[in-house]
Each structure stands twice: as structure tokens, then as C-alpha cells.
TrEMBL record:
Domain of life: Bacteria
Name of this protein: Alkyl hydroperoxide reductase
Annotated ranges, domain Thioredoxin: 9-161
Organism: Methylocucumis oryzae
Signal peptide feature range: none
Gene Ontology MF terms: antioxidant activity; oxidoreductase activity
PANTHER family associated with the record: OS07G0260300 PROTEIN, THIOREDOXIN-DEPENDENT PEROXIREDOXIN
Pfam families in the cross-refs: AhpC-TSA
Length: 183
């Protein structure tokens, strides 16, 4: 496992379109995921300890963002042949076990992760209603251990600001996690 931090965001960059298979058997496009006030694109996987540590927070925060008009989507970019824990069948199981309130999509070719510039799991991209990047930071100060539910909700607060004003915060702390497992 290689620990990486996300680079500085190219704020204002447009969200790349995609069409990916979801764990529900449906093909999803970018426009299917957007809320009226924005979109959170999350690159996650099944095996990364940094993602495992924040599962319940992802659910809590994406449900709260949905109530604010911000849609959410999770994309799994890892090479599932080399990392079987990240297989499509395991994606389906994880989504069911946690009752994901957002689409969980498989980026089998890794083209979408490359288009977004994703480098680790988790990697968060927060867009306003015009699908212009406003946030690329961490969920909170969690690491790979059991996550403290009382930590400041940095991602949620940032996306709440985006939903209300269309602009993200000036201060953004990079996300950190396991490197994407490229083919």
C-alpha cells in the first residue's frame, strides 16, 4: 500500500463526462448523478483501509448533501484482477452491506479516473451546479484507523458552501489514501 495525498485542485475545471456500469446493473452517466446544486464524485474501493475507516461517514454525509440538492457518485478505479477484493461482485456486496445511498460504479478501463486526475482512494471532487470543480480535499482528519464521528466534517461543510454559494472554500486540505491500483 502506497500512501498518497491529492494534488492542489484545478478549481473551475469542468467535470469530465462518463458512462459506467453501476452495481445495480444500470449504466450511469454524469448527468444522471448531478443534483440541482452540485455533485460529489468520490473515487473509492473495497479494500483500502482509508476508505473502510470512513464508510459510515460517507453514508451520513452523502445523505445530508442530498437533502441540500447535491448528488453523489462513487467510482471504483482499481485493477480488480490484481486486487480481487475490488471485484464487481465485491462492489455489489459492499454497496448492499452498507446500503449505499449513491451509485457505485466500476471504472474497468480506468479512463474515468485518469480523466479526473484521481490518484488515491478516497479522492473527492466537489462540483457546483455548473459542474465546475470547487473542492478537492479530504472528508475530515480521519486516517486508516476506526474513524471518530466527532471530527470536523470538512467535506460536508465545503459542499454545503458550494450548494449555497456555488463557490468552494479557499482552505482545502488534501485527501490521503491508498494509491490507485493501475493496470
Amino acid at each position: 500500500m502506497v500512501l498518497l495525498e491529492t494534488p492542489l485542485a484545478e478549481l473551475g475545471r469542468s467535470a469530465p463526462d462518463f458512462e459506467l456500469l453501476g452495481v445495480d446493473g444500470r449504466n450511469w452517466r454524469l448527468h444522471n448523478c448531478v443534483g440541482e446544486r452540485g455533485l460529489l464524485v468520490m473515487f473509492i474501493c473495497n479494500h483500502c483501509p482509508y476508505v473502510k475507516a470512513i464508510q459510515t461517514k460517507l453514508i451520513r454525509d452523502t445523505l445530508a448533501l442530498s437533502a441540500l440538492g447535491v448528488g453523489s457518485v462513487a467510482i471504483m478505479p482499481n485493477d480488480a484482477e490484481a486486487y480481487p477484493d475490488d471485484s464487481f461482485a465485491n462492489m455489489q456486496r459492499i454497496a448492499q452491506d452498507y446500503q449505499y445511498p449513491f451509485p457505485y460504479l466500476y471504472d474497468e478501463t480506468q479512463a474515468v479516473a485518469k480523466a479526473y486526475g484521481a490518484i488515491c482512494t478516497p479522492d473527492f471532487f466537489g462540483y457546483n451546479a455548473e459542474l465546475k470543480l470547487q473542492y478537492r480535499g479530504r472528508l475530515d482528519a480521519s486516517r486508516k484507523d476506526a474513524s471518530d464521528m466527532t471530527l470536523e466534517r470538512e467535506l460536508f461543510s465545503a459542499m454545503q458552501t458550494v450548494a449555497e454559494t456555488g463557490i468552494g472554500p479557499q482552505q482545502q486540505i488534501p485527501s490521503m489514501g491508498c494509491s490507485i491500483k493501475w493496470k
